[in-house]
Request: fold
Amino acid sequence: MRYSIVKLILQKKSEDLSWPVHHSLSMVILGFTTLFTLMFYYLGFASGAAFSLVLNITGGVAGSITSFILPSLVYLTLCPRDNMYYWAILVLICGIALAVSVIVDTIVNFA
Reply:
């Protein structure tokens, strides 16, 4: 996130920053994130249906990505074409379908 902010705002690489600017930017990002977290908590989003919806979608998609999509993509990228190549494609397709179905099911059951 810091790299993107530096690239967009300062038009230079994050590696070229001096350490005081680097640490100051890190503290600003950390403070901004903490402020938003506390704001959502005090506004009541930390409990209830809206927060539950966000956690369900995030958990379902992250679980699908880490369990099915990333391992099959790594296998497809690093390993040569063999008899397991098509199984990896099948696992990748199933992982994408699972991520989409989690999002659809969560939104449909939320209403």
In short: Helices lie at 2-10, 19-42, 49-78, 85-110. The radius of gyration is 20 Å. The CA atoms of residues 56 and 94 lie 19 Å apart.
